[in-house]
Amino acid sequence: MKRRNKLTRMYRVLSMAFIIFLQIYWYKFRKKPKAEWEKLWEEIGTRFRKTLFELEGLLIKIGQILSTRADLLPPAFIRQIEDLTDKVPPSNWSEIEKILEKEWGDSLEKHFLTIEQMAVASASIGEVYKGVLKNGTEVAIKVKRPHIDSVVQTDFRILGIIIWFADHFVPIPKGFINLSLLFKELRQVVEQELDYSKELETIMYFKNRYKDKDIVQIPSVFPELSTSSVLVMEWIEGIRLTNLEELNPLTVRRQEIAQRLIEVFLPQWLEPGTFHADPHPGNILVSKEGKIILLDFGMAGEITKKDAANFQALIESFLTKNYSKAVDCLYQLGFLLPEADSRIIEKLLAEFISFNPAQLKEMNLLAFKMELNDMIKALPIQVPTRFIFLGRSFVTVEGIIRQLAPEAELIDLGKPVFMEWINKQGNSKWSFVWQWIQSQPIFKFFYSVAEFLDAPKKLEQFKEKEQRRQLQFTIYENNKKNCFQLSLLGLIGMGAGNVTSQSLILYLSTGVMAASVIGYLIYSQKLKKWMKYMHEKRRE
Fold it and tell me: What are the residue boundaries of the Protein kinase domain, all occurrences included (predicted)?
């Protein structure tokens, strides 16, 4: 990637970001009404979307990930980017041919009978071409786009600047999410997707994982033709799960396909190991025999043993309506903040589970969704960064299932699959029975007694935590006061230097003034963030 193109790219993205920041500051300073804010976020979303399509590269993937964060970003902004597709014009065949010959060290004719020069798929990072090996096997050849490594590194530098600035200075509603951690996780995922040798390992992992499952089909790979920039896989024909007209003639009913989809992905979400983090309709097909075909393993995530155990317990708690246990699982997973009232969360979960989906037909869905988002933002709930891609995987598959079987309830479809999964894990049904016993009123009474006896210990831990928070708050407050005093001193020094015509005093005072103002703004922002963790009575 030429230096001039890099600078142009940086200028376009940074100028867009800082114009957005200035607009937000201006609207906040003018205290604009809610309707004006809606228009602003819609305008920002439109500009953001247009810039992404023009510059392509990593930015498209960033937009896709942001579109899943309706819990953090304004609805008007989300609406503009929620249907972003990672499709860009393919590269010139001459450039692709050079990459293939360089990676293989030979001419294409040595390995292939034919290769179609028109890409069958083209995304921001790679392109896919169809070819036929010397033995007649049809394959898919995935090739990284020319200069993509340079483009991605440039985009990461730009994104790093924007996130640092937004995290320290911009009053964007970020909830409780750590932008730095999000950036780190995004970088890890994209760098993994850039290395096709890692995708090859992931494909082989999934192929081994589902080797005894007849309902799943994973493409075979050709390691001898695969490198970090090229991946050669078996070509598999299938039907998109969103193409309902082509699914209807199949011998397998759509509802059964939906259950098979749950059977394939449920273990990925509940068991420790690797999960498919990008299961959009283009990456999940179904064969004429009704087998679920999984493609494109470039974006994958990991689940630890501890998180897997808590997720399993959470599902069991919902099925047995043991909401106190569900709240405990949410605490363990990091979805609830320490100050969350467990009793309120229990009641909300009970109301949510008992909600009748048929009522949705009688209400404004958009208004309901906005109200739900507002409620989530008002609660002490956070989405840990390590679960962003897991959540994306779940939501995408859930959306496909609802299209396949719109009349069926998701819980009804998933319950038999979950129970079968429990039995296959070797867990006896006594575990399920124990969960049910825990949900009964008599058990809740003993649980309340135990909770009461444990209260002094929890209170002591809470006091210790509050003291640490108070100390940190005091440090920030003192630093803010010191910066304010230094700025006054600098102002006085500037006046003295101007009156006495001493340029040295004037320059030193100006420097002190500038540094102290910047420090004052930084500590003011830190105090503002820290106030979220302070008790309400201490804010008054």
Answer: 114-540
465 and 409 in a single domain? The answer is no
Cα separation, 504 vs 424, whole angstroms: 79
**Token output for 464:** 């210790």
Residue 220 resides in a domain: no
List the one residue out of 369, 398, 140 whose CA is nearest residue 281: 398
pLDDT digits (tens, 9 = 90+) for 47-83: 888 888 777 666 777 777 677 666 567 778 887 877 6
pTM (predicted TM-score): 0.65
Per-residue pLDDT, 138: 96
Residue by residue, DSSP assigns 118-151 as S-SEE-SSEEEEEEEETTS-EEEEEEEPTTHHHH
Residues 377 and 410 in one domain: yes
Q: What residue has token string 């209170």?
A: 459
Instruction: Please work out, in degrees rounded to the nearest 5, the angle formed at the alpha carbon of residue 61 by the alpha carbons of 129 and 374.
Output: 145
Residues of the chain with pLDDT under 50: 174-176, 357-366, 368-369, 428, 445-446, 533-540
Q: CA-CA distance, 432 to 430, in Å (whole number)?
A: 5
Between helices 148-169 and 179-194, what is the axis angle to 10°? 170
Structure token pair of residue 361: 């037909």
Number of domains in the chain: 3
Six-digit token string for 338: 């320490």
Q: Which domain holds residue 399?
A: 241-447
Sheet holding 239-240, edge to edge: 216-217, 292-294, 284-286, 239-240
DSSP 154: H
Q: What proportions of the chain, in percent to the nearest 5, are helix, strand and coil?
A: 65, 10, 25
